[in-house]
Amino acid sequence: MHGYELKRAYDQRLPQVRPLAFGQVYATLGRLLRDGLVASTGPERLTGPDRTAYSLTKDGRVTLERWLGTVEPPMPYVNSALFAKVVVALLVVDVEQARAYLIAQRQAHTDRLRELTALKTAPSATVDEVVAADYAIAHLDADLRWLRTTLERVADWHREVRA
Amino acid sequence: MTKLEARGLVKSYGPTPALRDVTLDIDEGEIVAVTGPSGCGKSTLLHCLAGILRPDAGEVSWRGHRIDTWSEAARSRLRRTEFGVLFQFGQLVAELTAAENVALPLLLAGTGRRAARAAACDWLERLGVAEYADVRPGEMSGGQQQRCATARALVTEPRVLFADEPTGALDTVTGEQVLTQLVRLARQQRTAVVLITHEPRIAAYADREIVLRDGAIDHTGLGLDAPLSGGAR
């Protein structure tokens, strides 16, 4: 597969993920080549410029299968800017600042939830798009539940943080 | 011109107030979610808007005509023609097949038997349950029943569909499939939808959200169980 084809497959199969630059594709292929995980089958010219095709080596396939079989640690840390911002607001400003932030963030989350729902319910939506939107929707929904319960608890939390 | 308007709706059950001065407008083809915590008056509001309940005070108007003063027979006729209603549990007639259930509103409105059956089968097809046309509700899953109930609610091509927690009894995947189809079909035929839910991800199917709290519209849009007060909680 050529770098260009890889980039196209990435865009098509992983919609809604952080965009991938062409430079990043070639830099990553370079590292995989250096580590012996992919092999270059040499430049070829169909129409247009020369293109190098790459394929997985035996080591590359073993590494890929190991990665696919490795369970991701389920949320080992509460590593969220949302959580951190509320704590910092309570520590260095006041409960109103924390509350104002929670309300504004809740609105932004709700708007994005609506946007993604419109995307997945459009008659032209592909299964790729529906599955990707569902992933984001489930996470936004979880955040929204946290934002709501935290809004109700923020004053108690403030007292504890300031005690 | 299609517009449903409520002005100053008040409704109580004995000494318990359910709606306190609710005013809202719903435009043609608009999908509006009504959300809020349990017991905030969502279902009572839907029942008043759909002409099922009469408010104690206030007005409900449809295309400029007050309907809350109409007789039960006239309001019932409106629900058979221009309004459609869908509940959490489909409330299909157990003795009738899916196609007979879906054809029922058309038969009541005077459509001939053959045309009603054809329209019913067409709507079952659109909801993806055509193969259950001759099956009774008892032999269908909850999701299949709710698809039939959705077909029955839309078969008259109502101008407003009132849906009270329409996916509340379904698992997440089935619920979302039913809702996706409902919203697509409603948008296609410009049917306005009043969608009652307490789930943010269901409310996100709507164009707009109205939040109720203690029987009144919560203009903060937060619908929290307790009021926010500066550091007191």
TrEMBL record, chain A:
It comes from Micromonospora phaseoli. Pfam families: PadR, Vir_act_alpha_C. The keyword Transmembrane helix does not apply. GO terms for molecular function: DNA binding. Keywords: DNA-binding. Residues 1-65 form the Transcription regulator PadR N-terminal domain. InterPro entries: Tscrpt_reg_PadR_C, Tscrpt_reg_PadR_N, WH-like_DNA-bd_sf, WH_DNA-bd_sf. This is DNA-binding transcriptional regulator, PadR family. The keyword RNA-binding does not apply. Residues 89-153 form the Transcription regulator PadR C-terminal domain.
From TrEMBL, chain B:
Keywords: ATP-binding, Nucleotide-binding, Transport. One of its GO terms (cellular component) is plasma membrane. Transmembrane segments: none annotated. SUPFAM superfamilies: P-loop containing nucleoside triphosphate hydrolases (SSF52540). SMART domains: AAA (SM00382). InterPro entries: AAA+_ATPase (IPR003593), ABC_transporter-like_ATP-bd (IPR003439), ABC_transpr_LolD-like (IPR015854), MacB-like_ATP-bd (IPR017911), P-loop_NTPase (IPR027417). Residues 4-232 form the ABC transporter domain. One of its GO terms (molecular function) is ATP binding. This is Putative ABC transport system ATP-binding protein.
